[in-house]
Design brief:
four-stranded antiparallel β-sheet; 9 helices; Rossmann fold; six-stranded mixed β-sheet; alpha/beta
Length: 256
């Protein structure tokens, strides 16, 4: 893990009327680290994600990417600076094929626009990259299927493929295994585990399943009522009685 800070929030806050959904959350994230963000329903986890990625504008506080204040920037500008986001609900082009979805993401990452004089198939470098990504997410066999025709699990894999194609340095996964069958979950977890091996990547993961958190996280932060309640190594956080009882919904630890 690097000592440099790739992402930071300082006193990040958002209010909806009289409700404070995220309350002065200050946190730093570093390359080579996977941080799981946990807490009960309504804790502010997805709202915090939306503030970091730019889908929501903060009431107060700030977001920094590699030391630069991006609080005033929208999601497209933050994405261009390396923020990749996968949502609880898939965010695809449903009428296009799997291969076309990935191709468009590869083109966008390279700044390549449609050119009648040089069709896509003549850009061998981009074709190869798109095909490699399809293989990486185990979707080569579904390359010609419409995105809308995929199972929920395959749609989540395709969304990860699009994020990989855009070459972010910060990967944000919001409950990536939600709604998946038992057979589909390992593929997505393996993808995240492989991304984690790249020391230049910073990964944030919102997840309710504690077995997933245990298997992937280098660090856990706990939100409750919009506030940062705990931050530390997984064993320390999971063993904390206050976290087990109030924030993770686990049974109270029994003495051995």
């Amino acid at each position: 893990m690097s000592n440099s800070v790739s992402l930071e929030t300082k006193d990040l806050t958002i209010r909806f009327g009289g409700h404070v959904a995220v309350d002065a959350v200050s946190c730093q994230f570093r390359p080579g680290e996977l941080t799981a963000i946990v807490g009960p329903n309504g804790a502010g986890k997805t709202t915090y994600f939306n503030l970091v990625s730019g889908q929501l504008r903060a009431t107060s506080g700030a977001v920094f990417l590699n030391g630069h204040d991006v609080t005033s920037l929208g999601p497209a500008e933050r994405a261009s600076r390396g923020v990749g986001r996968a949502f609880q609900l898939t965010n695809l082009f449903p009428g296009l094929s799997v291969a076309e979805n990935v191709r468009l993401a590869v083109q966008a990452a390279e700044g390549v626009h449609y050119d009648m004089l040089r069709p896509w198939r003549l850009r061998g470098d981009l074709v190869s990259r798109a095909e490699a990504i399809l293989e990486e997410v185990a979707l080569t066999g579904r390359r010609n299927a419409a995105a809308a025709a995929l199972s929920h699990g395959d749609q989540r894999k395709l969304e990860v493929a699009l994020m990989i194609a855009l070459k972010p340095t910060i990967f944000m996964f919001d409950e990536p295994t939600a709604g998946m069958s038992v057979d589909e979950v390992p593929v997505v977890l393996d993808l995240i585990a492989r991304l984690k091996q790249e020391a230049s990547k910073t990964i944030l993961l919102v997840e309710h399943k504690m077995d997933v958190v245990r298997s992937l996280a280098d660090r856990i932060i706990v939100l409750h009522n919009g506030r940062l309640m705990a931050d530390g190594e997984p064993a320390e956080i999971i063993a904390s009685p206050i976290v087990q009882e109030a924030y993770l919904g686990l049974a109270k630890a029994q003495p051995s």
